[in-house]
Amino acid sequence: MAREHTTIEVAGREVSVSNPGKVYFPEAGYTKLDLIEYYLAVADAALVHLRDRPTVLKRFVDGAAGDFFFQKRVPANAPPWLATAIVRFPSGREARELTPVDAAHLVWANNLGVIDFNPWPVRRADLDRPDELRVDLDPTPEASWDDVRRVALVAGEVLREHGLVGYPKTSGSRGIHINVRIVPEHDFTTVRRAALALAREVERRVPELATSKWWKEERHGVFVDYNQNARDRTVASAWSVRPTPDARVSMPLTWDQVPDVEPADFTLATVPDLLARDGDPHAAIDEQPGSLASLLELARRDEEQGLG
């Protein structure tokens, strides 16, 4: 019979875990404790993408097959050691959100039913200026996985030509995400403007494969979703387990892996060994934040042509 309670000692903390044997992924048979042990195995790599970032609690209290809800505010009974930040939304409301700083924060969130982590592209030091531009390649129903991979390679090429380094990862679903560290000197609106310019340039290069059209009925192929850079938008972070039947992981990749990558290869069961064997392909992501100046110049030229 599954234990009803256990305590995890991690990062100098004792984190209480209820119902550790509760099955979270019915088809694969993975439990809450399996999920926690996964995050403990990848914690150092995962925290590269989560540390000090406001993070929405996406709670699957009945496991991956059940309903979920987004909880922006940490519970009132959260432990006093929990790191948080007060964030403000376009509506004018504010909330105290989790800002993970160590593995204890990940385990605490897992215990509440968090399966994938959804951080903001800002850090506590400056909540109004993103230090990350996000490229979300979202395939329409008729697009193939090969289309997604090809568009990702084009997006990487455009980024490099504009002085930026993209770090690709599988979304854990049908898409690919590319994270780009930037100098935190612009507001959300300006970063979104740069992302739109990028999306339009990708569309110009492969119009048969990619689209920047906002209205769904106008889209085809792979939508380069620039609006993920708007304030209060979040995307599942690298190394996050996604709520799929096989517990797929949003897996960091090298660019050499992109042409042949298969998302099903990366799951809660396989990724810890891959990380231990191959290391973290995104370990250097924070080392050289780039400037948006070149993309913003491209945005200015697009606007002059009436594309603003």
Strand residues, percent: 15-25%
Largest beta sheet: what is the strand line-up? 11-12-10-14-13
The helix count comes to 6
Distance between the amino and carboxyl termini: 61 Å
Which class best fits the helix and strand makeup? alpha+beta
CA gyration radius, whole angstroms = 19 Å
Shape: globular
Poorly predicted tracts of residues:
none
Q: Residue-averaged pLDDT, rounded? A: 96
State the helical fraction: 25-40%
Major sheet summary line: 5 strands, mixed
Number of strands: 14
Following the backbone from N to C, one meets helices and strands in this order, namely: EEEEHEEEEHEEHEEHEEHH
Overall description:
- The protein is of the alpha+beta class and 308 residues long.
- 27% of the residues lie in helices and 20% in strands.
- It has helices at residues 32-50, 103-111, 145-161, 188-205, 271-278, 293-304, and strands at residues 5-10, 13-18, 23-25, 30-31, 55-59, 69-71, 84-88, 94-98, 118-119, 132-139, 167-170, 176-181, 210-211, 222-225.
- It has a 5-stranded mixed sheet with strand order 11-12-10-14-13, with helices on one face. The chain has a 3-stranded antiparallel sheet with strand order 6-5-9, with no helix packed on it. A two-stranded antiparallel ribbon has the order 1-2.
- A hairpin with a 2-residue loop joins strand 1 and strand 2.
- The mean pLDDT is 96.
